[in-house]
Amino acid sequence: MRRMTARPANAHQARLLKLLRDGGPNSRAQLGDQVDLSRSKLAVEVDRLLETGLVVADGLAASRGGRRSHNVRLNPHLRFLGVDIGATSVDVAVTNAELEILGHINQPMDVREGPVAVFEQVLSMAAKLRASGLAEGFDGAGIGVPGPVRFPEGVPVAPPIMPGWDGFPVREALSQDLGCPVMVDNDVNLMALGEQHAGVARTVADFLCVKIGTGIGCGIVVGGQVYRGTTGSAGDIGHIQAVPDGRPCACGNRGCLEAHFSGAALARDAVEAAQQGRSAELAARLETHGALTAADVAAAAAAGDATCLDLIREGGSRTGQVIAGLVSFFNPGLVVIGGGVTGLGHTLLAAIRTQVYRQSLPLATGNLPIVLGELGPTAGVIGAARLISDHLFSPA
Amino acid sequence: MRRMTARPANAHQARLLKLLRDGGPNSRAQLGDQVDLSRSKLAVEVDRLLETGLVVADGLAASRGGRRSHNVRLNPHLRFLGVDIGATSVDVAVTNAELEILGHINQPMDVREGPVAVFEQVLSMAAKLRASGLAEGFDGAGIGVPGPVRFPEGVPVAPPIMPGWDGFPVREALSQDLGCPVMVDNDVNLMALGEQHAGVARTVADFLCVKIGTGIGCGIVVGGQVYRGTTGSAGDIGHIQAVPDGRPCACGNRGCLEAHFSGAALARDAVEAAQQGRSAELAARLETHGALTAADVAAAAAAGDATCLDLIREGGSRTGQVIAGLVSFFNPGLVVIGGGVTGLGHTLLAAIRTQVYRQSLPLATGNLPIVLGELGPTAGVIGAARLISDHLFSPA
DNA sequence: GCCTCTTTGTCCTGGGAGTGGAGAAAGTTG
DNA sequence: CAACTTTCTCCACTCCCAGGACAAAGAGGC
Questions:
Q1: Distance CA B376, CA B374 (A)
Q2: Is the CB of A63 under 7 A from strand D?
Q3: What sections of the protein cross the membrane (chains A, B) (predicted)?
Q4: For residue B197, with 0-12 CB atoms within 10 Å meaning exposed, 13-18 middle and 19 or more buried, which class applies?
Q5: Cβ B364–A231 below 8 Å, yes or no?
Q6: A215 has a chain B CB within 8 A of its CB
Q7: CB contact under 8 A, A330 and B358
Q8: Of B158, B231, B358, which is closest to A331 when you measure between CB atoms?
């Protein structure tokens, strides 16, 4: 099938496409209620969208008390690819134009193997999804990488945990390989976009999305838009000092948040606790698996292991301390906690909340929900699809 | 004189007004180079602005190689009032429509005397400026207060250092008294606006403006727009924890930045040093004045007093630590340091820079200037004038 | 089944806004 | 003084679009 290459010709069409994306099939009349256009003008724009093929007719709507309206919807053959490259695994998903996930694969993968190896795997995962009949091709792809990105060009810049990716033309390369438009962003920003589109942050204009995985990052949304900073490194909170003269960090400083609490740090702490005999549960798991991860700590904590609960509480407290500072500074309307470590659940959340509500001023915390992300591992890929759809559904 | 009450009728006119405000008198042809309008359309819009009286003819421009063009400029009789209410003093200034300061008064005043007493003084200062022939009336006023503001309504909310101001309808009241439109904002935001309009931040889209005065606050500019947060308390960094288990703070916590370094904290430290005999210079000054302020510390430091230099270095270091966190998070293109304590000058700046450059990652600090504000005490009043002009030069 | 009312969709016309050309006015340069 | 530039005004033509009229399609009451 020939892929759609059309783009909206003007802001009105872009608006309509986004309404159809976010609200699903809609009648012309309903669309008319949401945009400020005369019936004639609306009809013209919808007709033009039908001509481009981006939008198709979709039968009759239910009556609202009179003549039934003709529904329109985004072309059901449109497919977006959402890719979320983490430090230790890759998520690839296919969505339709309404950003519903049709298929989703996760595979372990070390990002340090470099862009060539990673993309080979991503492409084979995409091919597998295509082969399973979910898509005949892709109309666009969004991709998230675990490091700062020069956004307009779609190129990673000086990513600490991705040696070999610095300056690699991700957007360009993937666009060639997939034969469709591609947008690249930081994985944390995509998680924020995902939670904004389909998760807990749907109605909030200004919020923070803290992702605790192998590292720690923070997506910043200002006025509904992702804020990326001057060089694309905004939200890089893993290296904020959480403990004066604390543990040495890979970045060369001491006491960075990431050195004290993150997937990697937690695993280290768990191994130490097991070896020192502070936790029978962890020792047993270390014995069986040969290694420990945050998931082991979560399981042990769920089983009531005191040492693990302490580890989580302490980490949550450190994280909460940093978030408290950010809340004072940024005064968000919502804080979302996500990433691999969310398996630690409410113990973690409680520790974070305690610290934030204690340290920040009432005016900032008064009506501030601090919640876990709703979407889990799909937040990233949904955000990726959202990123490319925002791009494609904007006037060229 | 009857005041101007006209507002631009559309975005084009608003654009033109702002060009004339920021660029001074301009010919039609020059304006045409800067906006994307046909000659006819431009002429129509300029004519309409002339009709409203907001804009007046201003003679002939220099030739650019052909027929000389007719200049237009903002009505030279337009007057804005800029008011900057600090914790311990008030600045009031008159500007023309191009936001040039025509007259500026500063008077000591304790904000804790409450809104009624403060406004009485502000009005008398405004009257004095008017009486000196600088203005026959005001077309708009901007006012900054040292605490969070619910911006749309222009009402302070839960301001810690301004008991008695909570919920006081500042905008409404002042608008009545002055008989002109009024906008209210946090003083730090206005400083940021001022530095953006006429100071060091003219060309930067995303920057932070840290004001160290009696308290500590931070103006946040995102994409050229001041960011105020969900409840108007964004930038309230004075109560971020800088020292774990540090000094008790008025807010109830310990170790807040403001408790360790601010005009007030510095004065306290200075008195203590004088009494403990650690600084002969300060002791002498305490003897003569009966009290010490940040200015005394600055003077003593300039004279080479080691204790004072240490105080400044330590405070700068604490501040730098907090700013380092903000830089990692926000990735600004510029950090401006301003407020009363800037008298401490380069000793302070050096301490801050050292800490930020050491603690934040290279990608964020690589090209990050950290500089003192250019405008000093006029930043606030210029920002105030800018605030109201932005409001009045927008379509109604 | 029929009549009336409501909603939706299409067509058409009148008005208004804006583009861009023609040409006059005002200056510069050699 | 002639040729070229720039600015400004005027005007005709185009394009867009709002909103009314009307047709189509359905709901509901009797």
A1: 6
A2: yes
A3: none
A4: buried
A5: yes
A6: no
A7: no
A8: B231
Token pair for B21: 């405000």
- Mean pLDDT taken over chain A: 92
Question: What value does the mean pLDDT take over residues B101-120?
Answer: 95
Burial letters for B83-92: b for 16+ Cβ neighbours within 10 Å, e otherwise? bbbbbbbbbb
Proximity of residue A203 CB to strand D below 7 A: no
Q: What's the mean pLDDT in A334-362?
A: 90
Amino acid B273: pLDDT: 85
| CB pair distance less than 8 Å for B329 and A361 | no
* pLDDT surpassing 90 at residue A163: no
Sorting pLDDT into bands at 50, 70 and 90, what band is B2?
low
Please indicate, yes or no, whether the overall pTM of this predicted structure exceeds 0.90.
yes
Cβ-Cβ contacts under 8 Å for B97 (sequence gap 6 or more): B20, B21, B54, B74, B75, B76, B78, B79, B80, B139, B389
* Token duo for residue B23: 């660029």
Quote the pLDDT of residue A217. 95
Q: From CA B188, how far away is CA B228, in angstroms rounded?
A: 11
Q: Minimal Cα–Cα distance from A252 to chain B, Å?
A: 9
What whole-number distance in Å separates Cα of residue B143 and Cα of residue B231?
Answer: 18
Q: Is the CB of B41 under 7 A from strand D?
A: no
Which chain B residues are Cβ-neighbours of A358 within 8 angstroms?
Answer: 253
In this prediction, residues A51-79 reach a mean pLDDT of 90
Other Cβ atoms less than 10 A from the Cβ of A110: the count is: 13
A41-CA/D16-C1' distance, Å: 9
Structure tokens at B155: 């009402």
Pairing verdict, β A55-60 and A70-74: antiparallel
Digit-coded pLDDT (tens) for A142-159: 999 999 999 999 999 988
Q: Is the pLDDT of residue B214 over 90?
A: no
Tokens coding B37: 């309008």
